[in-house]
Design goal:
With 303 residues, the protein is α/β, with parallel strands linked by helices. The protein has eleven helices and eight strands. 49% of the residues are buried.
Length: 303
């Protein structure tokens, strides 16, 4: 039986969200709480899926942090490979309309999947290029030996897809699917099915940590309202559907888990800004997160 003491949940939040996650992990490790070693399970969604691959790569947290700080800061669009996408305003407007019309979480997920499949008429030709781009950002392309789950959503059925090393899916494909936000990038094909961003179901998907004694949720978007600019702006998070973080934390605690939640503090949020894909914000975001992580370590206690 695998050890089910500590589950680490890494939420979505774009490029700056990824930098914040790495900064938090490194800050915690700096003062003696190395979750790259302590976590018995890591669950990653969207940007958190990419971060999970780094956390499970065997690379020390200080090196993960240093790799973010060593990046060449540049404004949005400069020296970046630009894949085709729909106008961001159009995408968020469509998300809000889908959320307003949805009658259930599954209804919303299916509608978002349909939006992604529809958008493939424009975005689809870039699928292979995008997969290569995702692969280039991973420290290794093989699944780690230690348990890790990457969350996506089936674009046709709207159902949850929880990929791991035993799912028969390459890690690169799992992460590419988990980060495939409809309207901005193509849906991703795996074994005859199409998948979209796992954040369409939940930014964190913390409920997948059910059964673990301790759950640490690190969420770049957990402190934002659904109307604020960001990676999942406009997506409806309904407590009745248990898709919001608060409801998932309540569910885990009712199952007997001790749950700790970390969301960006004021300094981290200021560094992240409102454009979560701004590469120039990654370094200041990671620095702010590192400081926040060092402070947060004193509050994390495990049974």
């Amino acid at each position: 039986m695998p050890n089910k003491n500590i589950a680490l949940v890494l939420g979505g939040g774009g490029s700056t969200g990824h930098a914040w996650l790495i900064g938090i992990i490194a800050g915690l490790a700096e003062v003696g709480l190395d979750l790259t070693q302590a976590a018995d399970l890591v669950i990653g969604t969207s940007a958190g899926a990419t971060a999970a691959a780094h956390v499970r790569s065997g690379t020390p947290p200080a090196e993960l942090f240093a790799s973010v700080l060593s990046e060449v800061a540049r404004p949005v669009g400069q020296n970046q490979v630009r894949l085709p996408s729909l106008p961001i305003g159009t995408v968020f407007e469509r998300m809000r309309a889908i959320g307003a019309a949805a009658t259930s979480a599954l209804d919303l997920q299916r509608a978002m999947g349909a939006f992604g499949l529809e958008s493939d008429a424009i975005l689809g030709p870039a699928e292979a290029q995008r997969r290569a781009q995702v692969a280039s950002r991973l420290p290794r392309v093989e699944w780690p030996e230690r348990p890790m789950i990457v969350v996506a959503v089936d674009a046709h059925s709207g159902e949850l897809a929880a990929f791991d090393r035993n799912s028969g899916v390459d890690l690169v494909d799992a992460v590419t699917a988990s980060t495939a936000l409809p309207g901005l990038v193509p849906t991703h094909g795996i074994n005859g099915s199409r998948y979209i961003d796992g954040g369409v179901r939940s930014t964190e998907n913390a409920d997948l940590a059910s059964g673990y004694a301790n759950v640490v949720v690190i969420s770049p978007l957990g402190g934002r309202t659904r109307t604020e600019p960001g990676q999942f702006e406009g997506l409806r998070r309904d407590p009745d559907w248990r898709t919001d973080l608060g409801s998932q934390v309540e569910y885990l605690r009712a199952q007997g888990s001790r749950v700790e939640v970390l969301t960006p503090d004021a300094d981290s949020r200021a560094a992240m800004g409102t454009n979560l894909m701004d590469l120039a914000a990654r370094i200041p975001t990671a620095r702010a997160a590192f400081a926040q992580g060092k402070q947060a370590a004193t509050h994390l206690k495990f049974t």
